[in-house]
Amino acid sequence: MYILLRMESITKTFPGVKALDGVNFELRKGEIHGLLGENGAGKTTLVKVLAGILRKDDGKIILNNKEVDISDPLAARKLGISMIHQELSLIPNLTVAENIFIGREITRGPFQLVDFSTQQSNAQQILEMVGGGIDPRVRVNRLSLGEQQRVEIARALSLDVMILIMDEATSALTSREIGRLFETIRTLKSKEISIVYITHRIDEIFEICDRVTVLRDGKVVGTVNPTETEKEEIIRMIIGRELRVAYPGKKVGTGALSLRVENISSKSTGRVKLSNVSFEVRKGEILGITGLMGAGKTEIARAIWGMDTLLRGKIYVDGKEAKIKHPFDAKKLGLAYMPEERRSQGIVPEMNIVENISLPNLEKFSKLIFVNQKKEVSAALQWIKKLKIVAAGYRQKLKNLSGGNQQKVVISKWLETEPKILIVDEPTRGIDVGIKVEIRRLLRELADQGIAIILLSSEIDEILELSDRILVLYGGKVVGSLHQEEATKEKILAFAMGAGEYQGAEKK
């Protein structure tokens, strides 16, 4: 097969870190090429060099048998290289057509006015290439994330793309949207468009990729064909060792009742999100709550944490009714919440590790208006050691840490509050397989220490591995309740898709 792209001996160094160390990578025409590796392995750095976002320090990029200099994203686009980032870059208040042609508007007449009609017609033709079903006149903020993802792809296609880079394309999509995205990717492949596909979800590699290249510590470990390679071998390539997952045994909760939620309905952004939701969690128990995107998982956390208005229902902590009007109220009652949106809600990227860990705990580290810096540094160092946070130092800014290490800092800051009840929303999303195992093991250890844990996750395998009991949501309601010994992926999916037979709010 024709080799469209060769990256030879690519090197990139940041202060104190060699992000890429002589990396060789090739991409064939019409190939879907997976790129795997732990956070910090060099995946994103490599594709940013290809997309012109970063300048390489050394090496060659050869496109169509000619050496090219990709100095910036504009130069990359002119060469037919486009990148879709994990955080979509669409402008919410503009229409689909306006987003597709932004900066390249179709104009007419002596005054060069935007020809909206032609623009919409051309956008419609491009949208048909990614599955159709999207009105080019609709504002982007009215689309689902999956539809927005397809608009991003359509925008890339409008640039006559030859190489499309997709970074964690499915991290926020429902299973149905993922299936639609894969159909789109296969359509692009049939048109001989080459795709570099970055993901942490190894199962996706076997479903969609022709070949896979694994990076570790800025170097290529190897390139393999998924159809000829076992999943365990790819995991070993990623982390450099055999992965032996051993979670302490799950159990039926027998501890004292820690939290009881009774028939709550909540209001969020002007709409009722939850309807008569009831459940309980005991000390030392992990209650898993799952469902498809939009089912209400995050809304449960927001309601308990005092972020959304409680329209009706009651919350009890340690047997006493709790009046939680604000997150401060929840924290005083011994609750802690790790939000799904790590970057926007879980950390302050411009602050360092010490400052992030001490932020919810300032009363512990302060006297009057003065912060005891020695005390807060000491606490941070303990967490860095305990959770094996990889950083250049305790004063390193969070924005410069990998996603997995950022998540460890989020865990640290809330464990420093010594919570009785820990709510974790998508705790391992966008995290490499090695750190994912560490965090899952930590959650089980915390439960064994007596902390009541509410695990909100769309990853059914994660729910099955960790949960003592499982609730399934659909349309803001609890539609399924399973003890761990009877739970299966098929049963959970049936409930999540509204096809299960529900026996009541809680199985006794």
Return the average pLDDT rounded to an integer: 87
Shape summary: globular
CATH topology value of the largest domain: Rossmann fold
The helix tally amounts to: 18
Structural class label: alpha/beta
**CATH level-two architecture of the largest domain:** 3-Layer(aba) Sandwich
Strand content: 25-35%
Percent helix: 25-40%
Summed up, the domain count is 3
Largest sheet: spatial strand order: 6-9-10-3-11-12
3D architecture notes:
There is one protein chain. The protein is of the alpha/beta class and about 500 residues long. It folds into three domains: about 240 residues, 3-Layer(aba) Sandwich (Rossmann fold), CATH 3.40.50; about 170 residues, P-loop containing nucleotide triphosphate hydrolases (Rossmann fold), CATH 3.40.50; about 70 residues, no CATH class. The protein is about 30% helix and about 25% strand. The protein has 18 helices and 24 strands. It has a six-stranded mixed beta sheet with strand order 6-9-10-3-11-12, sandwiched between helices. It has a six-stranded mixed beta sheet with strand order 18-21-22-15-23-24, with helices on both faces. Strands 2-1-4-5 form a four-stranded antiparallel beta sheet, covered by helices on one side. Strand 7 and strand 8 form a beta hairpin. Helix 5 packs parallel to helix 6.
